[in-house]
Amino acid sequence: MSFPRVKRGARGYNAEQVDAFIAQARVAYDSNIAGAVTLTSTDIRNTAFSLQKGGYSTRHVDGALERLETAFAERERAVALATMGEAAWLQQTSELSAALTSRFARKPGQRFNKAKFLAQGYKIKDVDAFAERVNAFLTTGEPLSVADVRSVTFRPGRGGYDEAQVDAVLDALVELLLALGNN
Questions:
Q1: Cα 115–Cα 116–Cα 117 angle in degrees, nearest 5
Q2: Confidence of residue 37 (pLDDT cuts 50, 70, 90)
Q3: CA dist., res. 150 & res. 51, Å (int)
Q4: In terms of Cα–Cα distance, which of 42, 75, 63, 46 is closest to 175?
Q5: Would you state the pLDDT for residue 32?
Q6: What is the pLDDT of residues 133-161, one digit of tens each?
């Protein structure tokens, strides 16, 4: 698979890295060997590529990775349902949902650890505004999609929330949404 390249002199994803990863993903997805999981939806979500002049368009590659992650997550859900049974799968999903509900139900300004003194984190008001949307999804079923989570951005701010912790929790939220089929 080839992606459009950025304009000459502009920076895009390293084409060789992207091509190698896509080839690996194709082999992993086509593999029907039980228990031979070599790549997961989480691996895809955490994939990063170097930038190079004249590389692949980041927008196009990111879109393909999102579709690929969704396809892997759907297959993982089907395999989990078949191997562990619906009751165990629901229990596992409920535990993740409960942990996230507990996190997002916290008071504004107290949902995440703060960045270290003088370090920059995510602006607390931005994160808390999105946290209200997540909390509404978790408690009352308000609509929230994987695309909503993937596209959210937070402004930087001194004394803000710790970026790594917020990102990890958002990754868990994406995992839950994919498990529930909220693509």
A1: 120
A2: low
A3: 20
A4: 42
A5: 60
A6: 999 999 999 999 998 998 999 999 998 99
Could you tell me the CA-to-CA distances from 4 to 11, 18, 57, 82 in Å, in that order?
12, 12, 6, 39
Q: What is the DSSP string of 27-41?
A: HHHH---TT-----H
Q: What is the pLDDT of residue 15?
A: 94
Dist CA 55 CA 3 (whole Å): 9
- Rounded to a whole number of angstroms, the CA Rg of the chain reads 18
Alpha helices in 85-123 (DSSP H): 86-104
Among candidates 38, 17, 14, which has minimal Cα distance to 26? 38
| 11 vs 50: CA distance, rounded Å | 10
> What does DSSP say about strands 120-122 and 156-158: parallel, antiparallel, or unpaired?
antiparallel
Tell me which residue of 136, 115, 134, 133 sits closest to 172, measured CA to CA: 134
SS3 assignment, position 122:
strand
pTM value is 0.74
74 vs 84: CA distance, rounded Å? 15
Confidence of residue 35 (pLDDT cuts 50, 70, 90): low
